[in-house]
Design a protein that fits this description.
This protein has 188 residues and is of the alpha/beta class. It has one domain: Aminopeptidase. It contains 6 helices and 8 strands. The strands form 2 sheets. The chain has a 6-stranded mixed sheet, with helices on both faces. Strands 2-3 form a two-stranded antiparallel sheet. The longest helix is centred in the first third of the chain and has 17 residues, at 27-43. The chain is globular, with a radius of gyration of 15 Å.
Length: 188
């Protein structure tokens, strides 16, 4: 039986729930592309079944931030997915802040160990700083999904070096997340 992975390409292309921006790039474009590459990798592996929150770059979900998040969670819960991966790019007023981190709702859970594998693979494959696995049970997509869920912050759009990685290594990010999944499930 295939493992069902729901990829949430964080944020809408414009309007409500639009994402961060930096160095001429938009978070929602990066998450769309990385999610599309990841979906392609997973769909080519018969051990996985995959669905995405946004199937076109212009697709928008919801009419407010909350309804946008609820739509993403609703799709995953109604499928039902086995695992939920939400993709994001970070921003900070301090341009020196950089690195990748993964958020989970609880320590020492399936989400925690999945997040650990994904983060390690991103750090090793993309070459970005490891900001660690972080606990944030208040994040909507982590507390409202019925399956293990992780929120991946792939880097900071407001840091020049991270922004270059997010611009030029989108396939590498997707491949790293795929490798993280394989490591988590003990598949090769």
């Amino acid at each position: 039986m295939a493992i069902k992975i729901f990829i949430d390409q964080g944020h809408n292309p414009s309007g409500v729930n639009a994402g961060a921006e930096g160095f001429g790039m938009r978070e929602q474009d990066i998450t769309y592309n990385v999610g599309t590459y990841l979906a392609t990798l997973l769909s080519q592996d018969s051990r996985f079944e995959v669905r995405r929150s946004r199937n076109t770059p212009e697709e928008s979900l919801g009419y407010s931030n909350v309804s946008s998040l609820a739509a993403r969670v609703g799709m995953a819960n109604s499928w039902p997915a086995d695992y939920f991966i939400s993709l994001h790019a970070n921003a900070n007023v301090n341009p020196a802040i950089n690195g990748a981190e993964v958020y989970v709702a609880e320590n020492y859970t399936e989400s925690y160990y999945l997040g650990e594998q994904i983060l390690n693979a991103i750090v090793n494959y993309v070459g970005i700083k490891n900001n660690g696995l972080r606990l944030n049970p208040s994040l909507y997509v982590l507390r409202n999904t019925n399956m293990p869920a992780v929120l991946v912050e792939m880097g900071y759009l407001t840091n020049y070096n991270d922004a270059q990685r997010l611009k030029n290594q989108q396939w590498d990010y997707a491949y790293a997340i795929y490798r993280g999944l394989l490591n988590y499930f003990g598949l090769e």
